[in-house]
Amino acid sequence: WKKQRHFRLLEDAMTIWYKSRWPGKGHSTFSISDVEAVREGHQSEVLQSTAEEFPAELCFTLVFHGRQGNLDLVAKTPEEAQTMDEKERQDQWVRDWFLKADKNKDGKMNFKEVQTLLKMMNVEMNEDHALHLFTSKELQSDIFLISFCPFYKMLTQRDEVRKVFKDYSGDGENLLLEELETFLSVEQHEGGQSYQLAKMLIDRYEPSESGKHDGFQSYLCSQEGSIFKPKHLDLHQDMSQPLSHYFISSSHNTYLLEDQILGQSSLEAYIKALKRGCRCVEVDCWDGSDGEPIVYHGHTWTSRILFRDVISTLKEYAFKASDFPVILSIENHCGVEQQTVMAQHLSKILGDTLLTTLLDGQVPQQLPSPQELKGKILLKAKKLNNPEDCLDGTQTDEVSDEEAEDAESPISLLINFTFYLPILQKSKLSKELSDLVVYCKSVHFRDFEHARSNAKCYEISSFSEKKAKALAKDEGTDFVRYNTRQLSRIYPNGLSGAISSNYNPQEMWNVGCQIVALNFQTAGLEMDLNDGLFRQNGCCGYVLKPDFMRDSNTQFSPDKPEERQGYKPLRLSIQVISGQQLPKVNQKEGSIVDPLVRVQIFGVPGDQRVKETPYINNNGFNPVWNKTLHFVIHTPELALVRFEVEDHDRASRNDFIGQFTLPFTCIQAGYRHIHLLSKDGIAIPPASLFVNISISALT
Ligand SMILES: *[C@@H]1O[C@H](CO)[C@@H](O)[C@H](O)[C@H]1NC(C)=O
Ligand SMILES: *[C@@H]1O[C@H](CO)[C@@H](O)[C@H](O)[C@H]1NC(C)=O
Ligand SMILES: *[C@@H]1O[C@H](CO)[C@@H](O)[C@H](O)[C@H]1NC(C)=O
């Protein structure tokens, strides 16, 4: 039999209600969750039997879970049938998620729940933006599923992703396991593991049979689809080599939260740096008035904190972000008495955590490894003797002031501090403090020649940024060799330090310097590079240098990368396809960003390049650039790639929108998303770039 029926979706967005046309027969309902599938055309016995009467484009069948019989329906027009069908299918994927999130099954969700749901679905959304869309739909606090689906689609429609999907989907609607596998091996370069990966991705990103395309997009936006090789995010490097073979995440003037002249010294600054994976922190110690040494930036108006409190903070936070050793670099301006107080605090507060003896009691030929030093704090300071000497000498000794040039000069350029400048005197060293120094004995650097024949592996020198640059330029290979065996610490030039500005750490990494100390409190390009380098290897604060920087006879010079053994330049092509939900930078009403993408390569001097896309007018939500940028990279092992999005400004400097920086060696080729970070290195979740990357040998 055939009857005319009117079906209506109720406001709970889950119940289909239908009424018989016959008077007095009442109505019936069924739930959408009972529907297993929607089949188009003549796909049931009943519809096949009436095939002549009703053309296929009008027909569809609802298949129910369990025992309930099918419901065969015929629409009035092909359009009507198609609308229903298309919508049902596309919405199903969202509905499945909705059901997961709607715990009490009332078909309602408040804004907070929707946010949670979007997170579950791997849809990250800017809060302001979402709230704006919600409130503009006259839904106030609750949204119903019926408005959720279009909303979701509006938010996430991605034509450029759909295009890629269609290239690999046989029918343009579904991506079969084999098709996904082909995509993974051809475009994503996933090699031998593409079958396993395809299975895993389908399990993870497709909770239901429907909405394959949404699952595909979810994968591309996920960690597996990100530009960063997932396995490089984990701790994966050999941690058993000498300390000198690693780049070490290091902070300068750690105690400062802001400006170096007027800024605040704060324990919070230590906590922040340590939580960020920093493995070398600094204290500037001065005599306090009541016998307690204090920490602040000498001769300036920064506030003061107690040395004792810094050490307690260090004890508590040193190993929260990483197990690997922390180097405490002490800049000592105290008299002998308070130095002894410092030594007492260090021993008492840090206890076993402080390394005070040689690991194996032998004269060290090379520095111990991060692995061997796990959970230890090492003191870097001046020392009266050598760690292997058994000294039963005097309580104090004089250290010649040859290190004066290494010590950072207090800032006296902007303000007249003549009155406070210290009387130059021979510094005296407390034996107690000296005895706590083992593997990081501060010494003055003379020259590479002298170091080659006299230096011990546990001796460490500090270089100003200016001095290090000069050495890198004139004696690059010597510097690299020196750094295979000994640690070197670089600090910002005094003058620029006045405003806590940073220098480019890449130039120092290029010659193998390990402790390249940056002002962590100062956001910007330099910290982006630091965060970018140390994001790999489990954010543990240690990154193994490339092999040609660990060989003491290396021929490597950053200025002539082609002269080293194993030189293999690569070609990097980046097709910048599109951007997603870029944040608004200019809060002026009505202003919309005109975004452009700048790609910068940092590395050996010959690799430094900047290229950019044109800007797109008035579109921060889904701009499409589709612009390919080409680079040649001579020393991929040292290169960092920075993606920066800016708001084009005709009249003044462009505004920063977001960035992401990563080591070249951590890049995954293929179609990838880049999840952008704010100026402060914080994730700004909805904002991303979609790129297509290819890497090939230079022929
Ligand atoms: C700096 O201050 C000292 C002491 O107050 C004063 O004698 C000196 O003249 C000042 N120098 C300048 C350049 O103002
Ligand atoms: C992007 O560029 C490629 C090749 O340059 C072209 O084939 C493709 O159609 C472009 N896509 C868009 C959306 O403009
Ligand atoms: C992405 O890059 C690959 C390899 O270079 C290329 O074959 C493909 O056409 C690119 N995709 C688009 C949309 O241009």
From TrEMBL:
This is Phosphoinositide phospholipase C. One of its GO terms (molecular function) is calcium ion binding. Keywords: Calcium, Cytoplasm, Endoplasmic reticulum, Hydrolase, Lipid degradation, Lipid metabolism, Membrane, Metal-binding, Nucleus, Repeat, Transducer. InterPro entries: C2_dom, C2_domain_sf, EF-hand-dom_pair, EF_Hand_1_Ca_BS, EF_hand_dom, PH-like_dom_sf, PI-PLC_fam, PLC-delta3_EF-hand. It is found in: Cytoplasm; Endoplasmic reticulum; Membrane; Nucleus. GO terms for biological process: intracellular signal transduction; lipid catabolic process. It is a peripheral membrane protein. Its EC number is 3.1.4.11. Residues 550-678 form the C2 domain. Residues 89-124 form the EF-hand domain. Coiled coil: none annotated. It is an enzyme of class 3 (hydrolase). Pfam families: C2, EF-hand_10, EF-hand_like, PI-PLC-X, PI-PLC-Y. Residues 433-550 form the PI-PLC Y-box domain. Its cofactor is Ca(2+). It catalyses: a 1,2-diacyl-sn-glycero-3-phospho-(1D-myo-inositol-4,5-bisphosphate) + H2O = 1D-myo-inositol 1,4,5-trisphosphate + a 1,2-diacyl-sn-glycerol + H(+). Its main location: cytoplasm. One of its GO terms (cellular component) is nucleus. PROSITE patterns: C2 (PS50004), EF_HAND_1 (PS00018), EF_HAND_2 (PS50222), PIPLC_X_DOMAIN (PS50007), PIPLC_Y_DOMAIN (PS50008).
